[in-house]
Structure formats: C-alpha cells, structure tokens
C-alpha cells in the first residue's frame, strides 16, 4: 500500500515460481488471469494490444456498469470506458498504461453507458504474453465523497459562524451552499407551533428553475395522521431515497397538483433530514439530486444529519445574539425613558423645595411668620411629585419581582364594583384636569377572591391609560358578572391603537405612541397583564385608530 492507503502499482511479472500446467505453458498468463479474475476487489481487467478488454472480474464490470455479455462478445473496449480527455484514452492509451507500471497510478474518470462518470485510479503492469496488460482500477468515489463532505461541512461552518446574520438568512445561505456542492436543489422548512411547515429558503443549481422551485408544493403538516413519512420525521427520523421512485413522491406530495409539481423538479435521489432542538423537530432539510449516477447513501445522510445539528446550533446562537441585541436596545431605550420620567417629577419637586427654603430663610431673617396657605400649597405640590416618584419606583420593583418570580398574592374577598367606584371617585379630579368625564356602570356587587391591592393596581393602570390617551373625551367603566367570572371594561374615545401594535403593548417597555408626546415607562400594561395572569384571568384590548380603545379585564371569581 502507498502512504495514502491506495494500492501500489504492481511490478511487471517476469518470472513465476513453481511448475506450470500444459495450458499455462502455452499461455503463460492463463494461470495468473484465472486467479486474479476470481478476486472480488479491486477491479481488474486484461487488455490486448488493440485496447479490447479480453477478460475482467465482476468488480471491473460493475464499476463501468457493463454486462459480461459485452465482454464475452468482444465489444468491451478501453477507449469506451476511459474519459475522452484522459491521457489513458485514445490511440496512445496502450503506451500510456504500460508507462503506469513505472510512472505510478493515474487518476481519471470512467464514463458509463448512461453518461455518468466515476472517479478512478488506474494502475497497470505488462504481462509475459506480448501486447497484453493487466489493468487495476480503484473506485475513488468514497474518497471523493469524503473530501466533498469535509469541504461542504467546512464551508457550512464558516457560513454558520456569522451570528450577526438573521436566522432565516443563515438558512438561505445553507440552501445555496448545498446546491453548489452536493445537491441539484435544496429546500429548508421550519416547523410552526401548529405542526405546519413554513418554507424559509430554497435554492436551485440552475437559476432559471428557481421560480419552479419557489412554487414547489408545501409539505403536509407534521401531525398529519395520513402521512407516515412526516410522522417519522416528527420523531426525528431521517429518510434517504437513493432512487426516488413514484411511490416516494406520493409520500411527499399531497394531491395530484402537488405531485405533478414535484415530478417536474425531476429528482432522482432525495434526502429528508429533520432539524431537532431539545429533543423535538423544529424544521426540515430536503436535498435532491437530479444528476445521473449521483445516488445519496448512508455517508451522505450522516453528513447532512451533522449539518442539521450545526444549522440548529447556529440558528439558536443567532437567535440568542439578536435577542441579546434587542435586550440591549430595550435597556438603553428604557434607561433613556426612565431617566426622563424620573427627572419629570424631580424638577418641580426641587424647585418647590428651593422656594420653600427661600421663604423659610426669609422668615428667619425678617422675623415675619410664614404664610400657612403658601406653605401648604408648596408642600402639596412636593408631595404630589414624591407620589409620582414612588409610583415609578414601585413599577420598577414590580418588574423586578415579576422577572424573578417573586410576586406574592394575598387573597381576600373583594367587591370589584365597590373597588371600581372608589377608584373612579379618586380619579375624578384628574379626569377634570384632562377634560374628561368619568362614567361608572356597576349596578350590583361582583365579589371574587383576589388580591385587593393588585386588582386596584390593575384598574388604576387602565384608568390612567384611558385618561392619558383619551383626553377631552368620556371614559366609561363597566363592571358585571359573567357566569363564574367578573368582567371590568374601561372604554375611552381617544387616539386608539393601530392593529399592528395591539399584540405588543402588553410587553415590557413597549408603547404604541411616541414617548415625546406621552410620558411613562411603558411598564403599566406589562405589569397589568402579569398580575391578571397570576390571578388566573385575562386582559385584552380592542381598538381602532381615532376611535378609542376598550380594555377588558376578566377574573375568575373563585381564584385561590
């Protein structure tokens, strides 16, 4: 063996130990041929001076995809097997092969009758019978596939290492890399929560067929009881079809139209490999080859499964990176808003205290008494600002408790109607300042077992929002029983909320309007949702821009 593990070129045979039979004496190579032709591997053949293959073992015939009848009929020629551009083909093939005995092996390709090519290493030695050569052929396909797999995984690893890319951009890069290396076309689908597939990337080696690939049928849901293939994929089981037959297409496509589209893509060999994260399928890689002779096997499947593991890790890393970036952005935005909001009450508080200080110092210098009215007014303003600061700090503490899972509830019997009435009375002066009228419709008691202070906090947040965003217009509060649940609605007729913002206003630091025009930390509705869910209830909003908003709170009356 050579150092690289390949078979070394045999030395020319010039002598043989031991007695020969009569037949061997007439044909000095007959015994050698009989022994060698029985060897299953490597591929061996005897060639005469004209380039005709006069004998070969089964490995040689399989490698060239030719039948023994062609050999026996004398129709098998070396120049029909070797690639035309190879030095070991054509008129000088015989001389070239003879030189291989001393010059070492030659790497070239076999051309099969169907046009497909097989990478091979050819060695030869001269036989005692004149003008005959023993040719040894080694199939390099496994080595080439291994090199191809290593290159592909290496290129894929570089592609996947870019954590700053969006996850779907990473998946698109993998699809295009696949078609440049080992697939005619590639599809990437991610698995949604409901079990359906969403196609996020597709690539075709021929740009002109990209449009056809984009119209490729979507896979049936992974939960489809009529699809044993996709049930297997849901369990994380890969599938490889070395020969992609009609019955396999039926498994992948649902309906005649989808089947026709899949057939139009012309796949000859297919691999389906689930992407898995934390023990469950999260997506699917589809590799398809349309090349003659390119049949996927277990080595290819193993390589794509390794790729799937790397893809999932890369997408998760990218997702975490972007989440971290979003968290940093939200933190910076929050700190900017928080500093502004904290300064808002601090400025009038400082000014009022400075004024009180000057008045006090003036009274001490002159000996005149302080005006009780001016002192009371100044203290009232200062206390209002202190309350605002306390509310802001309380909100921050609530977020901290919620994040740490330390929000405690102290349950007691609470009349929601009475609580709403008390809060509406408390907010009436604020409503006057905003130019709003507050209406309450709570005709009967609605009692439940809740945390009074937390429910009060929720209703306070809803009323504060309604007055802030519905200034100058009526705000209506309704309390009623709804079976085993209590329902409270707060309706304003203000600026409203755009549909695309409805889903995010209950998140931390989110707002549907600019903080330049409306103050606040963007925490009130987030805290509201967390409290309501801790009590086993729900809070939702319906709104249209310019038509106001209605927040609906529902709580189970027997929560405990």
TrEMBL record:
Pfam families: GAF, HATPase_c, HisKA, PAS_9
Signal peptide start and end residues: none
Organism: Stigmatella erecta
EC number annotated for this UniProt entry: 2.7.13.3
Region of interest called Disordered, as start-end residue ranges on this chain: 1-29
Coiled-coil regions listed in the entry: none
Keyword list, A-Z: Kinase, Phosphoprotein, Transferase, Two-component regulatory system
Domain of life: Bacteria
PROSITE patterns named in the record: HIS_KIN
SUPFAM superfamilies in UniProt: ATPase domain of HSP90 chaperone/DNA topoisomerase II/histidine kinase, GAF domain-like, Homodimeric domain of signal transducing histidine kinase, PYP-like sensor domain (PAS domain)
Domain Histidine kinase: 337-559
UniProt KW Transferase keyword: yes
Protein's name in the database: histidine kinase
Catalysed reaction, written as an equation: ATP + protein L-histidine = ADP + protein N-phospho-L-histidine
Gene Ontology molecular function terms on file: phosphorelay sensor kinase activity
